Amino acid sequence: MAALGWLTPRRRSATARSVLAGEASAEAARKSSEETQETARADAEPDFPVIGDVRAAAFFDLDNTVMQGAAIFHFGRGLYKRKFFETRDLARFAWQQAWFRLAGVEDPEHMQDARDSALSIVKGHRVAELQTIGEEIYDEYMADRIWPGTRALAQAHLDAGQKVWLVTAAPVEIATVIARRLGLTGALGTVAESVDGVYTGRLVGEPLHGPAKAEAVRALAAAEGLDLARCAAYSDSHNDIPMLSLVGHPYAINPDAKLRRHAREKDWRLRDYRTGRKAAKVGIPAAAGVGAVAGGTAAAIALSRRRR
To answer: Which of 43, 53, 63, 267 is an active site residue?
Structure first.
């Protein structure tokens, strides 16, 4: 009996550990099954895009879908280098960009601050000047941040003879530069007002964000004679669910948690070009590590308001 008494607590302990091990194994199996199913769906997809279907087109979100990080931050980094504004607000804006990189999602207040800052920075400058600078900044800060996997998806549509558009809340001038450098058809973006080729510091309408993206896609499709049921859309953010829901072929690319859940519920296609478990959670390249904060600090200078 003494021997049995000695064994009993050990048996209970082993059982507890077994339960934990079993639960962990089941969770891993579930996740593995989900990933396998997603891969199987991708492998089982019919030929897409359909070659020669001129009534189909593709619409790509930009930030964290085509490019790592936010285009407006990278653009601002280039403007700071060119002495467009000062560094007094660096710490606050460094945190905002670092947060964006780590979370992989858009905070409305942060993005509004970014837009307001960008408008104040460009006010009084010529549109042509910013377009020229945009070409330089693309080479300096953006070209190396394009996701190869998403770029390949866009190229597949181009190879099929279809038009491909960027759809982003970034200024349309920046978006147009990126689209041209990637060989895409064009870009839909936020329009800043200009008079006689000079920025006034005001927007035309509102930022192209959330539902506004869907309306832009709908309007472009009507103008181009596209059948949205045959079109594709790609995004990382749940904010773009209205745009993704418009088309017959929605893709969740590097999705945030809310979009991933929605995509699975709707049986949408998923693609994740980030690497490692941490990247899957926070939306940054796994190799970035602590460097994401340092890189975010530099890129976040973009948001500093120029004091004139």
So the answer is: 63
The reported pLDDT for the residue numbered 74 is 87
Token couple for 89: 């607000």
DSSP conformation class of 146: B
DSSP letters spanning 259-270:
HHHHHHHHT-EE
Are residues 63 and 71 in contact, defined by beta-carbon separation less than 8 angstroms?
Answer: yes
CB 137 within 8 A of CB 76: no
Instruction: Spell out the alpha helix ranges (H) of the chain.
Output: 2-44, 71-81, 90-103, 108-122, 127-137, 148-159, 172-181, 211-224, 241-246, 257-266, 276-282, 291-299
Cβ atoms of residues 259 and 241 within 8 Å: yes
- Contact indicator for 167, 178 with CB cutoff of 8 Å: no
CB-based contact 213:240 (threshold 8 Å): yes
**DSSP for 210-222, written as a single string:** THHHHHHHHHHHH
| Tally of CB atoms within 10 A around 277 | 9
Helix, strand, or coil here: 65? Answer: coil
Out of 43, 47, 53, 61, pick the active-site residue: 61
Active site residue 116: no
Predicted confidence at residue 81, as pLDDT, reads 85
Please give the model's pTM, rounded to 2 decimal places: 0.71
Residues 45 and 153: their CA atoms lie apart, in Å, by 14
The partner residues of 146 in beta bridges, in order of sequence, read: 67
- Residues in Cβ contact with 199 at an 8 Å cutoff, skipping those fewer than 6 apart: 119, 122, 123, 124, 125, 126, 127, 130, 192, 193
> Is-catalytic flag, 61?
yes
Omega within 30 of 0 (cis) for the link into 49: yes
Q: What are the residue ranges in the chain where pLDDT is below 70?
A: 1-46, 86-118, 276-308
